[in-house]
Amino acid sequence: MTTDYLVIGSGVAGLTFSVKIAEKFPDRTVVIVTKANEDESNTKYAQGGVAIVSNKEEDSFKKHIKDTLIAGDGLCDEDVVEMVVKEGPDRLEELLLWGANFDLNDTGKFDLGKEGGHSEYRIVHHKDITGYEIERALLTKAHQLPNISILPHHFAIDLVTNHHFKYADSEELSCYGAYVFNQKSGRIFTIKANSTLLASGGIGCVYGHTTNPVIATGDGIAMAYRAKARIEDMEFVQFHPTALYEAKGESSFLISEAVRGFGAYLRNKKGYRFMPDYDERAELASRDIVSQSIDSELKKSGESHVYLDCTHLDMDSFINHFPNIYKKCLEHHIDIKTDWIPVVPASHYLCGGIKVNNNGATTINNLFACGECSRTGLHGANRLASNSLLEALVYAHNIYKLHSKKEPESIKVNIPDWNDEGTIIPEEHILIKHNLKQLQALMRDYVGIVRSNKRLKRAIKHLDLIYEEVEDLYRESKITTSLCELRNMINVAHLIIRQSLDRTENKGGYFNIDNTKK
Ligand code: FAD
Ligand code: SIN
Predict the structure, then answer these.
(1) Distance from Cα 274 to the centre of ligand 1, integer Å
(2) Distance, CA 43 to ligand 1 centroid (Å)?
């Protein structure tokens, strides 16, 4: 298959770029491959909203920039922060034009929420299902554009680069598309593209306990790493402080930070409200601080979780703002009106990823990255809440702007077909499952909120064993999605551990007990 633009992923990043470029150039083609149903993505589960300065009477770009820089703990790229924050209002306008709805208050202005690390109310939201609404609007718009083809249940296995063939007069790395696995037919084919965009989202599943859906296996980052793109800041995994605690079960429903913005308190089992002891902003300190404080409380008490207390809040307003959280808690026999919600931190977001410049360009020609898989410099050592959807919208626009200035080049290379000669169908699903469980246990136990050099070195040793076993399996087996995902998660885990060992200062979401410098 040949296309002008290949987009890997159908979350906010991939869809926004696709819609913009397809609308501007009806004669150019966009192919979106996405490994599950077309709407399945981290985007779909975003709750709190999008951080955007819309109320210029109370708020200002200056305040949003300052909050982002404070959360990032000195490691943000200040020019990037300024650019992203200032672009926010225009990108919001576009979303509105495409039909996304955001809640308004009685005066007809946006009903703004607040989250950790924000000095003002500035989170534009749609109830507590903002991501669902954005995904809905973007997919509706994409379906209206005949030059966009969405291929659901198509898994991108690897990028095609000069590694795959000899490209005579170029020493520089370039990307020519991707090898893609049709999960329904089992066929692997090549999509040749003038420009490829990785919009493949996050890595939450590398840790068993995560707020992310099962698609978040870091595929794009692993593909880019194997293709030798530059990957940075992988040590900055963000743990969300308040995932619903379930005694059994791995996947965790998120209790939005906006609930704390609405006035909820964190209490330990004894009922003590502990956050004021850790930070003067109490429950509204930035996410790294709240997660580390909960971790410390749990280590002191030996308990498995803490509680979020909403019982003192105005319940009618609460249910109006957070209907989904209210309903989900009831399904777990928790009535927020009277019961405290058991919560625990869970892996949530990756601040690092594939290094890109302001145009979303990676270190490989014709390869771009956008959204959670990218590392733009916006987040530094810790992302400010609700800056992620904003970042994806702004960078999708920048990548679109760059592409709209240039004619797509036609690529004249012969790309070899995927070669799976000599491979057998795996009968060893148990091996994949076993290694996945081991990987997740290792990341949880050795590479969690609080790290140490000893645990990180032990993690590398264990990971090497898993890596060898899985690479053997990969060489012998016909492709399956779960095998590729496991391989990708091992690559991502390796990057997180290695880059953790390289960091000698504790910053933002990175805390190592052996580091004395801050
Ligand atoms: P995603 O939305 O994750 O999309 C990735 C896409 O790539 C998916 O379609 C996936 O199927 C596809 N894909 C992945 N690998 C492959 C492959 N190998 N082949 C083909 N397709 C592939 N951020 C905020 O700013 N505000 C919030 O309120 C907020 N709340 C959140 C709540 C939850 C529970 C979670 C999990 C995250 C939240 N975030 C929030 C973070 C934010 O939702 C994500 O960072 C953002 O949506 C990422 O968008 P994306 O387009 O980069 O990736
Ligand atoms: C939340 O609603 O707490 C998630 C916000 C975010 O991840 O930005």
Answers:
(1) 32
(2) 4
**Percent of the residues in the chain that have a pLDDT greater than 90, as a whole number:** 89
At 168, the pLDDT band (50, 70, 90 cuts) reads very low
pLDDT in tens, 114-141: 999 999 999 999 999 999 999 999 999 9
For residues 220 and 201, the answer to whether their CB atoms sit within 8 Å is yes
Q: How many CB atoms lie within 10 A of CB 81?
A: 25
Q: Is 49 in the pocket of ligand 1 (CB under 6 A)?
A: yes
**How many whole angstroms separate alpha carbon 452 and alpha carbon 181?**
39
The yes-or-no answer on residue 287 being catalytic is: yes
DSSP 8-state class, residue 254 = B
Pocket of ligand 1 contains residue 116 by CB under 6 Å: no
Instruction: With beta carbons less than 8 A apart as the criterion, state whether 98 and 136 touch.
Output: no
Buried b (16+ CB within 10 A) or exposed e, 214-249: ebbbbbbbbbbbebebebbbbbbbbbbbbbbbeeee
Q: Which residues lie across from 5 on neighbouring strands?
A: 30, 195
Catalytic residue among 91, 260, 287, 455: 287
pLDDT band at residue 460 under the 50/70/90 scheme: very high
Q: Supply the mean pLDDT for the chain.
A: 95
**Structural domains in the chain?**
2-235+351-405 (3.50.50.60), 237-348 (3.90.700.10), 429-478+480-512 (1.20.58.100)
Q: Which of 485, 115, 486 is nearest to 290 (CA)?
A: 115
Distance (Å, whole) CA 340 – CA 244: 11
Lowest mean pLDDT among 68-77, 197-206, 403-412, 453-462: 403-412
Q: Which atom of ligand 2 is nearest to the CA of 257?
A: 3
Residue nearest to atom 24 of ligand 1 (CA): 386
Verify whether ligand 1 is closer than 6 Å to residue 393 (CB atom).
no
Cα 324 from chain centroid (whole Å): 21
DSSP state for residue 410 in the 8-state scheme: P
User: What is the rounded distance in angstroms from the CA atom of residue 254 to the CA atom of residue 263?
Assistant: 17
CA angle 484, 489, 493 (to 5 degrees): 155
